[in-house]
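Entry 14. Two folds queued back to back today. First construct below, sequence then structure tokens.
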Amino acid sequence: MLKKVAILANGGDVSGFNAVIRAIIKTAENNGIECYGFIDGYRGLLNNDFVRLSTNNRENASGILPKGGSIIGSSTNANVFNYKVELPNGEVEYQDLSDKCVQNVKDDGFDCVFTLGGDGTQKSARDFALKGMNVIGVPKTIDNDVACTDITFGYNTAVSVAAEALDRLHTTGETHHRIMVLEVMGRYAGWIALESAIAGGADIALIPEIPYDINSAVKKIQARAKVGKHFSIVVVAEGATPKGGDLTVENVRNNGKGVDNNKLGGAGQKVARQLEELTGFESRCTVLGYMQRGGTPTAFDRVLSTKYGAKAMELAMEGKFGTIAVMKNGKLDYATLEDVVGNNKEIGAVSGNTPESNIRKVSMDDDLVKTARHIGICLGD
């Protein structure tokens, strides 16, 4: 019998965090289970910083369904298996503090910890499961790149924001005869770029899975000009790379082993500059950035998040720990955290664009790719 459970939200914020939290709490309350939340993700787990959560009138989890962000915060680059510690002499070293987290959960009497996050968060969840902690994951990321699930919560809202931005860029591009480039997030997966390009009527979409030839994009723009369309809309994923080229990295952080220290950025500006030089059309780049993460979730994400939260609590009550709630072929299901991790077996090595990382990328036989090609969107190849 479950008596007490805890929730932590980890990684970059997304719309839908609070909807998942609410669904877990409501399902717990309906089954006589107390619910708590660790503050600021894995950092809160390490510091044993948590609060009681309740949806009763005027309490902290009441009315949070449409609210963006996370009422219990979140942390990024908090790898407790390789945690940055400042020593008394001012030096910095990285320590494995995961056993302290496990002990905190035992001391607090939590029967299960729900980990809301992306591939890095779920990798740590798997590692905690190996240490005996009862863990259940919920797939969160706007990137839509968590393995074993059809869709992550937060993704639909991000695509909707990007599509609306493209609608607005259309009018400016058409009025001033310009190439309008929109850079979107997604890290090493092109889901946001591809789906928003289709939804927003873009002419070109450059995604990480297809190294692009800039001349292919130039030919598309020139072909449009020949039929009287003197503007073009281009979507560029932040992880898009030219053929034979490298990622466009804004800076490299020093957050230790086990996290992705590359901060991507600049791919859109790079493409805009090249297209202007090669076509003669003025080009402008808009970087959508954190606009994709914040704000109220779409109705789709509210429902999806609620489904995921309720399913996660159901899995906990059934004792199916070491798993993650997923969507398979449009139906709720679960997968093991081992399956999500794939070949990323090393304890503490969290995430990143490595051969071992089991992130879900766009495949060339995906319906989105086929649809884009059918309607004439240039994918840069």
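Second construct, same run, same settings:
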Amino acid sequence: MKTKGNRNELIDLISLSLPTFSAIFSSTLYLKKIEYKGTNSSELYNCVEETFELRKGLFQDLLNIKLGIGKWTTSELIELMEEYMTTIRSIFRNVDKM
């Protein structure tokens, strides 16, 4: 899906991709033998950020976008999406080394 910087398409992409990556993150933590306490997405994201030494709050920002919390400019969404994709690649590289 190419968003071409379209604000609504960026929000849709974030909203649709987060549940998929949540499942991958949960499985990745299991493979690393890391147990996280909690049953909600925020706690999972906090554990992933800590485990992979990521920017604290990245996934909470993405979750907030999905939930419609806060006001995000198109440029902020583009910047966050770029960070999101870079972070996902970094996590996958880490998993490949396991």
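Quick look at the second one. The mean pLDDT is 88. The longest helix spans residues 7-31.
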